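User: I want to check something. If I give you two sequences, will you return the structure for each one separately, not as a complex?

Assistant: Yes, each is folded on its own. Here is the first sequence with its structure:
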Amino acid sequence: MKKIVFLIIALMSYNCYSQCLPPVNCNASNINYYNADVNWDIVSGSHHYKIRYKEISSATWLYKNNIDSIQNNKNLANLQPLSTYIWQIRTYCDSINSNFSSWSQLDTFITNTNLCPSPTNLNTTNITYYNALASWALISGADRYKVHYRIYGTSAWSNLGLLDSMTNSVTLPLLQQNTTYEWEVMAYFDSTIQMASLWSTPDTFTTTSFVAAPFNPQIDNMLSSNVCNTNVDLILKLTQANNEPDIATSTITTDGGSFDIAALSTGDTIGSASLITATQNIYAVLKVGMIIGQNYAIINSYDTSGGFIGFFAIENIANGVRVSSTSPNDGNNYTSGLISEVLFNNVFITPNYTSDLHIFSEIESELNDFINNTDTFSIECPNNISENVEKKILINKIDLQGRMLLENSTGIIIYIYSDGSIEKKLLLKKM
């Protein structure tokens, strides 16, 4: 009797153990060139699932492990485009992977879709010895784009960052002169970067030869007023021609005046700046970043989106001021041409005496070229400013009662002048 009972319990245990069933209704959806969703029906009593998949011609399976029991789909990413895949799923009915089902029936899908067309009309313009402008036609429904480029005939691609849906051009940087390149672009059709097109047909171009220009920046520094002891605008302007060596450092000094640093507070907006090049226009605001005493401050520069792009140091020195800056490294030693202007608004105080004020510019290139420039301004105090002032003319003489008087009248006389002024005089008769 005991043997029969034991046999029955053993059979029941075996029967329960064997009831871990594989999922059914396996299918693939949302198929594109690089990924697909695989789906199945949830199995009652499951603890987790395991998926295996591969290209149909491959001998190696890829796996997705420990898929939660409440899930009934999984995304397979990083697939090869235009390829046939097979996949299966099995059920695990315990946490220690001892009770599991057989693999499900095979399902097949092909990574191909008409939902993700590749960009067309590729074109390359503004080609120089070190960069070029790549452009393409926008695609309706695209969420963003990705561009990569390489030296023609090589295998390694350089990738640029993702571009938004309304951007259809980008500069290819850090190129070599006299070299042929190719580039491609793909489109993404969702914000998660899952649905992507194939890479476009490549476009090719050849960079130009580099011919260096002498280091000769044009400097034009200005003041908004030449009245002495007055807060004025200080404008620093610099222009460079194409293929000049890049500027490394610049120092501007004066032999008079001062910065009104004592009146500044951290975060104050004190001016603006602009940089115009062949490929971009940058506009910025200048804000006080740090104040160190009454004679030294760091002025930060922020672009229109609030991003930090650089800084200046302004300071009061013996008999004048100094503005110094260091240019960021852009990966090369030559410029494509630029116009740079910095405006310090109402923070420079002119000398409190009549004199010539000199603004000295010392500019050093990344190749150790030097150039000096001097701008001269005549500072004048109001008493020394030449003005065409109309001389006041006597137009009438009256007494205290308002009666007009003769030429030789005596007593208290009121003199009335053409400029509206009045004088009172006491005239006595000579004995």
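And separately, the second sequence with its own structure:
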Amino acid sequence: MIVRGIKQRLPLFSKSQQRIRETNLRDTKGTLMELNISNGRKWLAFIALALSSMCTLGDMVINPIAAALFEVFAGQSEALINFSITGPALVGLPFGVLAGVLCDRIDKKIVMVTGFAIFVVSACFGGVDNLPLFVTLRCFATGVGWGITNTAALSILAVMYADEAEHGKFVGWYNMVMSIMGALMAFVAGILAVGGWQHAFWTYYISIPVLVMLIIFLPSMRPTSHSSNSKEKESGAADAGWWKALVPLTIQVFFVALGFFVSLYMIALYVTDAGIGDEAFIGVLSSISTIATAIASAVFGALYAKFKNAVYLPGLFVMGACYLVMSFFPSQITAVVCIALLGLMWPTYFCYFYARCTELVPASKAGTATSIVALSDGLAATACSYLLTGSMSIMGVDAVGAWIIPGVILLATGIISAIAFLASRKKSS
């Protein structure tokens, strides 16, 4: 009753009695899904989804206290301590796939709320001084919770915004909020950690009102009894062979992400080996990357509407060139400029691939497609450190010299992608 009264009084809900009927072909059973929601509630649902993206980059809370963990748990398994920092991302991958399958079969809201609730409970109580329990809670917070929530959120966006251009715009905005939330949470966690390493986990308390928003404003997304195969016919992807359309995209995701994540996770090693700065400079570079990503995400929708499937191609060549320049000409100026460009280019692949994957497959497989792309993305993020350290060992160089490898990978991926893109255009014409 209280919520209803608020809705009737706020201007945002002035049209709440004039319900808009949205027919969306991206449902869980390949049938029509009808969302009878107001414009106001639709915006509130998006805001709740965007804020839930803290789950994706919420792991950055651990960064300010990573070194302190080895002191807190001194004398205990260093392998287990390291796993508490890097393991959750790996744990979350299969749960992301599970979430995608579930989103294609049951109410997407249930999957989303369940995943985020797991994140809330385990994250808020994650600051325990028992190492096995600490690792368990960390894996559930940023592993299981992240895997389910991220896939479910992107699947829901595909339902709420079926139009191609609109979908791309809101995926971009989602990524923008994710970048901002990650930076803010890391900043606040660093301040709170001054009073004790456990205080950093207080940052996660902001997730509690977000969970309430998801429960209240997110519409139920159950399949209806009205069947339609028009989307499948339009996409040209039959149920039996839907994965064939997704395979090339998934391969692209892996190699692009493999190259990009080197700059995100291995920048400290580069700065140290290049001798161009200290921890403060590393923090500056991380902030520059985050700000650049947020800016590019905000305008991605407009770029996607104009350039469609070619939107990500220039970014591959720019990112590849940045790695080569940083390798051959290491300096603070080079690092600042190239990291800013890498941050600007990230949304062109991240937002595009997640927007595109639901357009390539039947409506009944949208959730599964999203989870497969997320799996490929996550595997690349896990493998990037091994790529760099392995290259350093084989080539006998430091991190500066090894950055040639991701540069070559991105340039090669760009060339192959461009050839495939031109071939597809020629075939369609």
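Because they were folded independently, the notes below concern the second chain alone. Strands lie at 20-24, 33-37. The chain has a mean pLDDT of 79.
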